[in-house]
Amino acid sequence: MPFGLLKYGLSKTYPAKHHFTPRKDLKKHYDVVIIGGGGHGAAIAYYLAKYHGITDIAILEKGYLGGGNTGRNTAVLRANYLTEEGVTFYRESLKLYRDLSNEFDYNIMWENRGQLTLATTDAAIGSFRWRAEVNKHLGVQSELIGRDEIRELVPLLNLGDGGRYPILGGLWHADGGTARHDAVVWGYAKGACERGVELHQLTEVTGLDVEHGRIKAVLTNRGTVQCGCAVQAVAGTSSLLAAMAGFKLPIHTYPLQAMVTQPYKPILDPLVSAPHVHVYIQQTSRGEFVIGGGSDPYPLYNTRSTLEMKESLCSAIQELFPFIGQMRLLRQWAGITDMTPDYSPIMGLSPVENYYLDAGWGTWGFKATPISGKTMAELIATGRVPDLIKPFGVDRFLRFEQVNEAGATAASH
Questions:
Q1: How many CA atoms lie within 13 A of 77 on its CB side?
Q2: Kind plus residue range of the DSSP H or E element containing 343
Q3: pLDDT tens for residues 45-102?
Q4: Left if phi > 0, otherwise alpha if psi is -120 to 50, otherwise beta: which for 383?
Q5: pLDDT for 306-358, tens place per residue?
Q6: Exposure of 325 by Cβ count < 10 A (0-12 exposed, 13-18 middle, 19+ buried)?
Q7: Which residue, among 135, 157, 144, has the nearest Cα to 277 in the 3D structure?
Q8: Are 271 and 175 in contact (CB under 8 A)?
Q9: Do the strands 279-283 and 289-295 form a parallel or antiparallel pair, or are they unpaired?
Q10: Least enclosed by CB within 10 Å: which of 2, 193, 308, 388?
């Protein structure tokens, strides 16, 4: 190994195979243009190329691969949602995640660690009991557990005896885990590019050419490209791009902040969420404590982080784990989340012909990366909306058939 690294370092030319498309000019036409080079965009391209034989695809990313919400999330994966539609959808995503490293021949660092959501009121206990039964009925491992079991799972947790929020129980989701978010998008993009897909970074979409209700071309800062169809997978800027296509989406965009400590000795295995104080925590394989919470209380298209949110997260997490007060913060960051009224995504057809929507993911887009890519690719290739995503069409808001997941957040918004 040392000699191999030395040879690699002293080589005059790049000795390894390029993972992604070398920079080149845009072609005049593509069968499919995917707007957004995050996990979802790369996954759609990958499944189109590998399983449907469609390779004349351009992924257009205004920044760098995975530089948006894919690179700004906290890497939590789970399927313990509220509705039948939501639980079924995210269950299938978790199944795909478990085998992605083998699928890619590329390690995404998947870890099955379980997730614990804490309850501090009788109402929360009742809600968790119902939620666990829905999950189990649909094949997802969730159960209501008591204080003794919580103490065994997380010995360092302050159960709040005598405090303002005594912990009464919790929802234990054994299927929960984490994966390396960068590795996921790199794996999908690598597999897509190896099959002929073109990845164009630093390529910002500036307009959409819609004629007679059909998408014709995508305008960029590097020129105009004609397309057979286009897909928008741009997270927090979903409503802005839809406006370019001439329609409105029921989406508001809010910053979502998180922070991380310096690395410490591994002492916390499960993911722990506390909706009552709007905070959650997990310790990475490198020893860092990743801490997140609810989104900002006002809409904003900006990834700035704030002292106010840092103080709120620090105060909340020290109630649960007092020892964290002695730790040093390493960094703080934010993404911008596209929130729908029912906290469920918008997937499928749009009011514009041949223009597809992958939007409205709010705070759980990373969890859905594999299944959204697979189902959206099936829709584009076959023209038929897969049963799994039919409930998430944008027209559900006109029919008043929302899929309400508002209470399923890890730290209530």
A1: 30
A2: none
A3: 999 999 999 999 999 999 999 999 999 999 999 999 999 999 999 999 999 999 999 9
A4: left
A5: 999 999 999 999 999 999 999 999 999 999 999 999 999 999 999 999 999 99
A6: exposed
A7: 157
A8: no
A9: antiparallel
A10: 2
Alpha carbons 232 and 388: distance in angstroms, whole number: 19
Nearest residue to 326 (alpha-carbon basis) of 162, 159, 156, 161 = 156
Residue found by looking up tokens 């002492």 in the block:
267
Residue 184's pLDDT band (cuts 50, 70, 90): very high
Q: Pick from 307, 328, 387, 376: which is nearest to 348 by CA?
A: 376
Answer for the pair 19, 183: CB distance below 8 angstroms, yes or no.
Answer: no
User: What gap in Å lies between CA 405 and CA 222, rounded to an integer?
Assistant: 40
Distance from C-alpha of 76 to C-alpha of 106, rounded to nearest angstrom = 19
User: Strand 29-35 and strand 57-60: pairing?
Assistant: parallel
Phi and psi at 380, nearest 5°, equal -65, -40
Nearest to 40 by CA among 192, 260, 239: 192
Please tell me the number of Cα atoms within 13 Å of 136 on its side-chain side. Answer: 11
**Entry pTM:** 0.94
139: left (phi over 0), alpha (psi -120 to 50) or beta: left
* Digit-coded pLDDT (tens) for 233-266: 999 999 999 999 999 999 999 999 999 999 999 9
State the DSSP code for 342. Answer: T
Instruction: Tell which residue, 234, 240, 241, 236, has the closest CA to residue 253.
Output: 236
CATH superfamily membership of 112-175+253-339: D-Amino Acid Oxidase, subunit A, domain 2 (3.30.9.10)
Alpha-carbon gap, residue 215 to 232, rounded angstroms = 12
The sign of the torsion formed by the CA atoms of 364, 362, 392, 137 equals positive
Strand order in the sheet with 142-145: 142-145, 169-173, 115-119, 271-274, 279-283, 289-295, 252-261, 329-339
Tell me how crowded residue 267 is: count the other CB atoms within 10 A of its CB. 13
Provide the 3-class DSSP secondary structure of residue 157. coil
DSSP annotation of 287: S
Estimate the share of the chain in helix, then strand, then coil, as percent rounded to the nearest 5.
35, 25, 40
The answer for residues whose C-beta is within 8 angstroms of residue 240's C-beta and 6 or more apart is 301
- Best CA proximity match to 85, nearest among 399, 343, 373, 276: 343
In the block, tokens 């920044």 appear at 63
